[in-house]
Structure formats: structure tokens, C-alpha cells
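This part of the workshop introduces the protein records we will be handling. A record pairs a protein's sequence with a compact description of its fold. As an example, a complete record with its sequence and its C-alpha cells follows.

_____
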Amino acid sequence: MKIALIGYGRMGKEIEKIALDRGHEISLKIDVDNQSDLTADNLKKCDVAIEFTIPASAIDNYKLCFEAGIPVVSGTTGWLDRKEEVYENCESKNGTFFYASNFSVGVNLFFELNRKLAALMSDRSEYDVEMTEVHHTQKLDAPSGTAISLAEDILNVSPTKNKWVNDKVPASNELNITSEREGQVPGIHTVKYESEVDYIEITHSAKSRKGFAFGAVLAAEFSAENKGILTMKDLLNL
């Protein structure tokens, strides 16, 4: 499979290693120094694109992939306020778009655990819920896309919380997400339910970027064989 890497930072380099190990070819690498090479003609020479850039450029990159007629796997976060626009553009071009706030297989199992715990706690009014996410200092968005996904799954079943907030003292109807940035932490996400007498806490802690990169390559392989709007739930049959 011929892969276009749009974004060749730390994640892009990790994805490249895993893709090559799995027998794929990196046919196009786009970084800040060669952005003029990101054209529909060059993309058409590839089977799939994996996009890890920044919110300001991501949507234009997606649309260019749709125009070129190749599937795109998106690992960029912070653009979801324009999600409907992207999905509509993909569908109008009969394209394929795979988005995940986190490509780690472990994190996606953690999402399932979070949903089950949230359902169990939905009628336990004596517990209040809060979240913490910790990432490296180079991470641009806060809270993380993974934290937002976790929070939204809690809000979907909570009888008392109807919105999430970031780094503030929450009102009774708000779920606070504390964002911490330190060192080279790949990602730690914690959901905590606390009462007067005890607390229940679940945590996922990434050891490195390798798990994210491996999941992104799996998503690229899956996207090359499937059509439409795809997610990790489709890939993992969750």
C-alpha cells in the first residue's frame, strides 16, 4: 500500500516506521519545508493518506484528499466545530474519511470501559465526576480530543451534567476537565467519581507514541478497503 504522510513530525516519523515494518511504502511525505508538494496530482499516486498536522490546515488537507479520490485518516484534533462540513464534503465526493480522537487500541477499549462505568454511575447521585488529562508541553489543544470524547460519553448518560468545561471551578451541571502539560508525557487520561466516603477512578496511561502510530496504520489499512465515514468502532468491531 502506498501511503501519503501529511505531517512529518514525531507522530509522522513513528507512523513511517510501523508502516514500513508492515510492508507498506511511504510515497509522499509533507512537512513544513515542502508544502507545495501537497497537490491532488501527487495524492492520486497514493492509496491512502494519514494526516497529523494542526487544526488550521487539517480541513483543507482533508478536502484535497477527497478531491484526489483517496481515503484520508485524520489524527488531528481541535477542528470538530467544522465536523459536519468535513463529513458533507466527504460524502459529496463519495470519499472515505477515518477520524479518531485517539488511535490507540488500548484507549478505544478505555472508551468502552468509560461508557460502561458512566452508565453504572448514572443513578448514583452521591458521586460527582471529574476528569484530568496530562500531555507533553508541545500539545497545542486543551483539553485533548481524547478527553472530550470521554467527557461527551459521560454527558450522554448523566442526569446531572450537561456540558464540560476546562480548568475552572465547575457549576453543578458541569463536568470539569483539568488539563496539565508537562515534559514529554504521551498521554494520561483519568476519570474519577468521588463521594464523601470513597472514590472510583479509571486511568489510561500511554507509555509512548507507538500505540497511537500502530492504530493509525491499522486505520489506513482498513480505510483502503472500506468506504464512507469510519471510526475505531468500525475497525475494532466495538
About this structure: The helical segments are 10-21, 40-43, 55-68, 83-92, 105-121, 145-155, 210-223, 232-236. The mean pLDDT is 94. The chain has two domains: 2-101+210-236, 105-205. The longest helix spans residues 105-121.
